[in-house]
Inverse folding.
């Protein structure tokens, strides 16, 4: 089949070499790499929503923006030319350009919700049950390989604690993930519950026109504050360097700086904390009081360090537009909430910025030869493949670096895997523990010492397990993986092709 024929995918076709699940940042990036490296593979992208974008389609709250710089959150193959911290709309525009420039639109099936995936070893095929949302029709797809790019949280049901008295509250209570853009908060008292990246995004936007904003947090969060510009990129543009080169150089520079920060966070957290504070002071003055509302209980990078452009949330506090309360919520009242210490906070609108519910593999039930897959009982290989589950990869990005860095890296590796399967004339590949792994300790997906946000710790038992050896885990260290993953020996004894292990 020629490349031109490959692109002519009919809307009624239901068997493909590869099906990519999700048309978000991971799915679109993976499709690019697949089309570039394996033009002979027929593929489709199944997307539950009515358009592309994933997270950037789901989130509509005020000021929605990236918390990673776009030079590294953007793809390695398409230069980013805007501000490092981009709005949700700018990211969607960028993704739309990738789809258009690479002819990916004909491959995407929107409004297709997967309800079950079942692998047959007798056929070496995945059977995929789908509901087409526009008319409710039940469809069946098949494919040789599944590329799971649907993210790791529930896009429809965010995490909302079951607070006492919620039914008593007379104002507007909404989770940030379910925000209606038509909601008018002008001259309203707004209470934001939470202190993470979402809270830091909505609060400066609310503060522009709201009567007042209060942030109620159980514990503070670290933020990296800097100008929303890249001095190196601006300089290179000024002297006439082309955008491809600028993207490559600036991307490398940012990645190295992130590496230095990560190392400092682990080796000398006190110095890292002081550096972060100095950045904040440069915007709000040396007299800014960090105690008690801006002193997190964990070391930097045990939870995500979000980019806060221009220290805007701290400026809102200094300007009197934001009040911070560090306490736990005891109950809702008719007019707002009461904290455990007895403080009453009245609000016209309460926004829960309380995170999301983890959803492994999109919550889709999986079977292998009629047996239900329990993901926690599988052991992950480099965070992308799982023991006992053939012909499937899962894209799970980084917490301490841009998610998309792993999308690009795995995209290249998976295409190498396809070529290796073709060279071996193999129809099936899976990973399995080797003889030397039989006594390996099996552990939870990630250590709470390494990374411990609430959304992960709440549902750690839903995630696949890891082994104590580095290859049997997702180690969340891009700076190690960028060497290890491209060097993966696809003929190593952990890979089993058509039931045979290479020794």
């Amino acid at each position: 089949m020629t490349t031109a024929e490959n692109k002519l995918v009919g809307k009624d076709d239901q068997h493909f070499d590869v099906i990519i699940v999700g048309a978000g940042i991971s799915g679109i990036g993976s499709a690019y790499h697949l089309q570039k490296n394996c033009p002979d593979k027929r593929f489709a992208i199944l997307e539950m929503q009515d358009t592309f974008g994933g997270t950037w389609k789901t989130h509509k709250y005020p000021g929605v923006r990236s918390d990673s710089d776009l030079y590294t959150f953007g793809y390695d193959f398409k230069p980013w030319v805007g501000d490092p911290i981009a709005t949700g709309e700018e990211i969607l525009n960028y993704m739309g350009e990738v789809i258009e420039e690479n002819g990916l639109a004909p491959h995407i099936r929107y409004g297709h919700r997967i309800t079950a995936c079942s692998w047959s070893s007798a056929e070496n095929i995945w059977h995929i049950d789908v509901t087409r949302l526009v008319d409710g029709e039940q469809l069946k797809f098949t494919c040789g390989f599944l590329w799971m790019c649907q993210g790791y949280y529930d896009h429809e049901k965010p995490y909302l604690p079951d607070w006492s008295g919620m039914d008593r509250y007379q104002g507007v209570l909404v989770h940030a993930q379910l925000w209606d853009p038509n909601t008018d908060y002008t001259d309203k008292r707004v209470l934001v519950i939470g202190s993470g990246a979402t809270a830091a995004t909505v609060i400066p936007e609310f503060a522009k026109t709201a009567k007042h904003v209060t942030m109620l947090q159980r514990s503070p969060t670290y933020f990296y504050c800097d100008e929303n510009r890249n001095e190196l990129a601006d300089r290179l543009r000024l002297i006439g360097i082309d955008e491809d080169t600028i993207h490559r150089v600036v991307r490398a520079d940012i990645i190295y700086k992130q590496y230095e920060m990560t190392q400092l966070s682990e080796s000398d957290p006190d110095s890292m904390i002081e550096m972060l504070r100095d950045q904040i002071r440069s915007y709000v003055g040396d007299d800014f009081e960090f105690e008690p509302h801006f002193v997190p209980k964990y070391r930097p990078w045990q939870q995500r360090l979000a980019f806060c452009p221009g220290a805007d949330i701290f400026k809102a506090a200094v300007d009197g537009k934001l009040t911070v309360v560090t306490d736990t919520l005891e109950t809702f009242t008719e007019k707002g909430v009461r904290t455990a210490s007895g403080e009453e906070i009245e609000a016209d609108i309460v926004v829960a910025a309380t995170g999301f519910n983890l959803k492994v593999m999109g919550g889709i039930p999986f079977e292998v030869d009629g047996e239900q897959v329990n993901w926690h009982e599988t052991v992950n290989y480099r965070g992308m493949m799982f023991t006992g589950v053939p012909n499937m990869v899962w894209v799970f990005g980084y917490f301490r670096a841009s998610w998309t860095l792993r999308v690009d890296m795995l995209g290249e590796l998976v295409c190498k895997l396809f070529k290796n399967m073709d060279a071996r004339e193999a129809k099936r590949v899976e990973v399995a523990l080797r003889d030397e792994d039989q006594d390996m300790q099996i552990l939870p997906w990630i250590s709470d010492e390494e990374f411990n946000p609430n959304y992960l710790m709440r549902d750690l038992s839903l995630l696949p397990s890891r082994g104590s050896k580095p290859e049997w885990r997702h180690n969340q260290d891009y700076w190690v993986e960028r060497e290890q993953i491209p060097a993966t020996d696809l003929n190593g004894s952990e890979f089993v092709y058509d039931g045979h292990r290479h020794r």
In short: The two ends are 34 Å apart (CA to CA). The first strand starts at residue 15 and ends at 21. Residues 243-267 form the longest helix (25 residues).
